[in-house]
Amino acid sequence: MTATPSRPAPESRPALLIVDDDTLIADTLGFALGNEFSVYTCESRPNAVELLRQLPEAPQLALVDLGLPPTPHAPDEGFRLIADLLAHSPSMQIFVLSGQNEAAHARHARALGAAEFIAKPCDPAQLKRLLLGALEMRDAELRRREGSPEGLIGDSPAIRKLRDQVAQFAQSPFSVLIEGESGSGKELVAQSLHRLSARGAKPFFALNCAAIAPTLVEPTLFGYVKGAFTGADTNKSGYFEDAGEGTLFLDEIGELPLEMQAKLLRVLENGEYQRVGETLRRVSRARVLAATNRDLRQEIRRGAFRADLYHRLSVLTLSVPPLRELGRDKLELLGHFRGIYAQQSGMQPFELDPAAERRWLAYPFPGNVRELRNIVIRLTTKHPGQKLGVEELEPEFDLEAQPGQAAGGSPDMDRAAAALEALGRTPGFSLDQALKAWERAYVDAALKLTHGNVSQAAKLLGINRTTLYSRMSSSDAGEAQGGSPVTPPPRTGK
Predict the structure, then answer these.
(1) What is the tens place of the pLDDT at every residue in 378-419?
(2) Is 179 helix (H, G, I), strand (E, B) or coil?
(3) In a domain, 235, yes or no
(4) Which long-range contacts (CB under 8 A, 24 or more apart) does 241-244 make?
(5) Is residue 14 predicted with pLDDT exceeding 80?
(6) 57 in Cβ contact with 50 (< 8 Å)
(7) Cα separation of 345 and 18, whole Å?
(8) Which of 72, 70, 71, 90 is nearest to 82 (CA)?
(9) Which residue among 425, 440, 473 closes a domain?
(10) Do 23 and 57 contact (CB within 8 A), yes or no?
(11) Same structural domain, 400 and 447
């Protein structure tokens, strides 16, 4: 296992994480890029996750291979790593550097949140330019957020409803549970709740519960006293104390260890907590916001989340809609990010022709706003000032991903998990009925996306029009005869 900097580096040097099980490649890249970056190298996903939990700050950039142990000839572990890295640090810019350069793998890696897919071998000088360019884009966006925090972008009914709820809940003293898929903008909602509240001028602290070792959660939240544990050389306040009368945002609350859930519940009930290693009772006046991309009710049934904590957190609940449900807001977000990145790069913004706009609106964006943003960055770089058609657009899309697909793995992994769940919970399961139900769901989705145009729906499904008519008639006849199609198993997870 390698989990150390490739060479000492000044603090001003941006940090780069390289994850590759070929130590020769990792060491070579570390040497080639070491003049510009503080490089950390790991050879597996668990090593990388453990390293991130030990570092005081996550690296701004990452280069990851898809073929990692224990399945070096398949991309699944690399896909999981992308999801892990973004759960730890949503602003991290991830580049996939892989010999597994199938187009489907590249599209899925980008849908998960990777900035770009680069086939091996790659010229280190070109790689350095790409990394530095991505860092500039990232830093420009972070500066823009800090300098002029915007509200929620869009005018769809779902976004208008969310915006109204945020304005309504902002002034409440109660906790808010923010639910939504990965990449949908839950932290932006939390920041809006804080900014619009009477606490807006007070501190806003955020802790990603998926990005910290379980043993560090308690001292991070509550603080500790000198001598409380090895390495506790001085007294240290925690987030509850530092937030004062401001806001504490707990992202990925479903990852919080059970023993910590009881202590968090106590704070929510009466404000009381103790620093690790002391008996003095302290009182927090911070407002707690929490977010999750899990179904916490299902976690309660599994015994992984406390029911009393869930009910305390969910007094007020906000659901952030996935991008696939936002209609023409996809075009508004396109224009928003296009203007930002064209200005930042000094390039002319690209445009979409009418057919490309329709394709943009039809694409479900399984990676949500994060995926849309990364596509805009790539199109700005590749096609400045050009009018793009469907031919330029579709290579950026993950055409095999399903709407609502979990963001933590490959399509095959998610389908297998869904099948296991369906077989385990459905007495008298029928494969034929399940397949017919899936088919009907796809047909209905295609007709909805094409506003009932059968020819366009058939093209979207990859079949001819007469076949689609036949399958629609067959499905309608089955239901008319009293059939009860099996509901497709739900897709869950990150």
Answers:
(1) 999 899 999 999 999 988 998 766 555 544 444 444 455 455
(2) strand
(3) yes
(4) 241/282, 241/284, 242/203, 242/205, 243/202, 243/203, 243/204, 243/205, 243/284, 243/286, 244/202, 244/203, 244/285, 244/286
(5) yes
(6) no
(7) 26
(8) 90
(9) 425
(10) no
(11) no
Amino acid present at 360: W
Q: Which residue has the tokens 């199938």?
A: 102
- Under 8 Å between Cβ of 411 and 111: no
Backbone angles phi, psi at 256, to 5 degrees: -70, 130
Per DSSP, the residues of 417-450 read HHHHHHHHH-TT--HHHHHHHHHHHHHHHHHHHT
Angstrom distance (rounded) from CA 126 to CA 107: 21
Distance of alpha carbon 198 from alpha carbon 203, whole angstroms? 12
**Does residue 173 lie within any of the structural domains?**
yes
The verdict on 391 and 480 lying in the same domain is no
Among 279, 328, 342, which Cα is nearest to 159's? 328
Residue type, 233: D
Torsional class of 353: left (φ above 0), alpha (ψ -120 to 50), beta (otherwise): beta
**What DSSP character marks residue 276?**
B
Measured CA to CA, the distance from residue 263 to residue 84 in angstroms comes to 26
- The number of distinct structural domains making up the chain is 4
CA-CA distance, 50 to 420, in Å (whole number)? 29
User: Is the separation of the CB atoms in 288 and 240 below 8 Å?
Assistant: no
Helices 124-147 and 368-382: crossing angle in degrees, nearest 10, is 120
pLDDT of the residue at 414 = 46
> Which residue range forms the structural domain that includes residue 305?
157-319
Residue where a domain terminates, one of 319, 337, 366: 319
Helix ranges (DSSP H) in 271-410: 296-302, 307-313, 329-345, 354-362, 368-382, 390-393
Which CATH number covers residue 446?
A: 1.10.10
- Residue 276 pLDDT class (50, 70, 90 cuts): very high
